[in-house]
Amino acid sequence: MVHNQGGIWGKGAKGNFAWATVDAPLVTFEDINRGLWPADIQINNGTIFSYAMNNYWYTDAPAQQGGQFTFRYAFSSGPEFSTTQAMTLAADQRSPLFEIRHYNMGWEPTLSDKGGAFVSTSPEGVRVLTIRPLESGDDYLVRVQNTTDEDINANLQFPQGQIQKRTWDQC
After folding, report:
1. Burial of 94 by CB count in 10 Å (0-12 exposed, 13-18 middle, 19+ buried)?
2. What separation in angstroms does the CA of 140 have from each of 45, 131, 158, 166?
3. From the DSSP assignment, how many helices (H) and strands (E) are in the chain?
4. 25 is in which domain, residue-wise?
5. Domain shared by 77 and 136, yes or no
């Protein structure tokens, strides 16, 4: 099993799986935490314990809490489900790309009211994290993440517009 920020990917004899959560990211593998802190872990049974309330520790949280709570989990699996797909699942649960409408009098709508993608990416594993205007007002910062463990060339397509100027800085 591989654990990344917000998700877990596992590989088995009959297929692979991914598990992700926004609300309960503290997990243990194999068994609940019994105060042992091994240097490494052998995964034998594939059990994942999710600490929904993170109140297992007597030092800083009550052992019980009242009220209504929502805990969201996402699962996926398949014979060829990759670590890249698992990282995408986890990232989509934590922080999906969404729009913040910027009103400016005089702007004409440029996207169809029938919908459509503002930006698409390729190859698999390329994620757009942020698109925001810079202080100049004419330029935009686009943050892109490679969720694979390989060097790749990212392609961004803006089907509804045209890029007039490109500046590439490697971070």
Report:
1. middle
2. 48, 7, 13, 10
3. 1, 10
4. 2-94
5. no
pLDDT tens digits along 12-61: 888 888 888 888 777 888 888 777 788 887 888 878 888 877 666 666 66
- Residues facing residue 8 across a β-bridge: 3, 19
User: Does the pTM exceed 0.70?
Assistant: no
Q: How far is CA 90 from CA 18, 19, 39, 56, in A?
A: 8, 8, 26, 24
DSSP-derived secondary structure letter, 107? P
Q: Specify which residues 128 forms β-bridges with.
A: 144
Question: Are 48 and 105 contacting, i.e. CB atoms less than 8 angstroms apart?
Answer: no
Asked if residue 49 lies in contact with residue 32, where contact means CB atoms within 8 angstroms, the answer is yes
Residues 84 and 122 in one domain: no
Q: How many domains does the chain have?
A: 2
Residues 6+ apart with CB under 8 A from 118: 99, 111, 158, 160
**Do residues 89 and 51 share a domain?**
yes
Q: Which long-range contacts (CB under 8 A, 24 or more apart) does 48-55 make?
A: 48/1, 48/8, 48/19, 50/21, 50/24, 50/26, 51/24, 51/26, 51/27, 52/23, 52/24, 53/24, 54/24, 54/26
Interval 14-23: pLDDT, tens: 888 888 888 8
